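Structure first, sequence second, as always.
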């Protein structure tokens, strides 16, 4: 009973902290719009006009690259078709962008969706862990490239201050990534499962330890496949770079004379801000403030810089809301399966029904690596995983 009360209290505090962070971020966004001139911001958005449609659709390119990067990490025997991987990645981004899940809930949901497409629970969880690591490592490379290009662009004091601050943050992120990789090679999931044994029913402990050991083995195996890791890394890097086109299109629609290199610098620095503010839903306010700060280095007015961020918000809503609807439909459809079909699905994979617990450990590990950069954070893996596991049972 005390453990149940403790878990309920912890889930409540997580929800409250995320709601407060989201509210503060929204208030900061409103303040920035007002401080920059609401009329000017509205004028800039109207100037973009129908260009929001191609800007939104352009995001499909980096989405495709990141999906193919993850697909490389899935076992060939059960690897879903590219189209399936793309829509799973789409749902993953939709959840992380629009729901207060600290950029973790979408990862857990994608593990579950991969299971429903025939991937074993251990392989799906392992691929997500490695994909998270590849994403963080390539983002680090992308941001550092932006910093180097920024220093080549100008040597003003403001530029040096921004470059130094971002470089320090990326240095801390590098240490966090290395620590995360070391933990993966030393039995991350098995260790997390044993630490959580007091909070788990006794009937689950043995099964979860077996599943955790399988995930740890699959993670290490992935790192040993050099060709797979190289292809995954290249796809992910191309995705980060492709995101530059979105910023360039916004600036072109606004008539701002910035080149593709300047757009790459803005996109890379913006991605660093979003990574640091992962605990704030959608990085509300933080992303807008970052673009105003970085845009000023290139002489961009505040309203134009805000238009870049707001166009991303429009894209997140335009692509994310349908993604959430599809996710909801898939979950309802799965719950309404005939009992015989569900029994066949549950007995067809020895570790499939344990993915909920594994996903919780994934969430804990991912949030731990990120909190080293952005401050202390609390993961959402356990409650989300518990609900996911409850649906299957």
């Amino acid at each position: 009973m005390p453990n149940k009360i403790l878990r309920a209290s912890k889930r409540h505090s997580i929800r409250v902290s995320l709601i407060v962070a989201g509210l503060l971020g929204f208030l900061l966004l409103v303040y920035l719009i007002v401080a920059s001139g609401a009329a000017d911001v509205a004028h800039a958005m109207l100037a973009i006009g129908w260009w929001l449609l191609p800007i939104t659709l352009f995001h499909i390119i980096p989405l495709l690259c990141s999906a193919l990067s993850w697909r490389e990490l899935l076992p060939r025997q059960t690897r879903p078709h590219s189209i399936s991987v793309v829509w799973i990645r789409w749902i993953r981004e939709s959840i992380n962008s629009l729901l207060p899940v600290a950029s973790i809930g979408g990862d857990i949901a994608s593990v579950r969706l991969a299971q429903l497409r025939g991937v074993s629970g251990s392989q799906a969880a392992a691929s997500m862990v490695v994909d998270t690591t590849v994403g963080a490592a390539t983002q680090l490379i992308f941001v550092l490239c932006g910093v180097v290009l920024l220093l080549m662009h100008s040597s003003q004091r403001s530029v040096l201050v921004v470059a130094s601050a971002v470089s320090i943050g990326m240095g801390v992120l590098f240490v966090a990534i290395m620590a995360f990789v070391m933990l993966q090679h030393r039995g991350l999931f098995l260790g997390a499962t044993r630490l959580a044994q007091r909070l788990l029913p006794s009937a689950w402990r043995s099964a979860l330890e077996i599943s955790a050991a399988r995930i740890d083995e699959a993670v290490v195996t992935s790192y040993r496949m050099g060709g797979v890791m190289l292809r995954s890394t290249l796809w992910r890097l191309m995705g980060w770079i492709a995101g530059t086109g979105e910023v360039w299109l916004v600036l072109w629609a606004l008539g701002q004379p910035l080149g593709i290199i300047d757009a790459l610098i803005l996109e890379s620095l913006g991605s660093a801000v979003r990574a640091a503010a992962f605990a704030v839903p959608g990085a509300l306010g933080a992303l807008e403030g970052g673009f105003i700060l970085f845009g000023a280095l290139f002489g961009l007015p505040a309203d134009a810089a805000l238009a870049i961020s707001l166009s991303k918000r429009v894209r997140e809503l335009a692509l994310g809301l349908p993604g959430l609807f599809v996710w909801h439909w898939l979950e309802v459809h799965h719950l309404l399966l005939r009992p015989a079909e569900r029994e066949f699905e549950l007995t067809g994979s020895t570790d499939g029904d344990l993915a909920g617990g594994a996903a919780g450990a994934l969430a804990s590990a991912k949030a731990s690596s990120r909190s080293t950069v952005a401050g202390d954070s609390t993961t959402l893996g356990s409650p989300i995983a518990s609900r996911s596991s409850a649906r299957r049972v």
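Margin note: The chain has one domain: 2-392.
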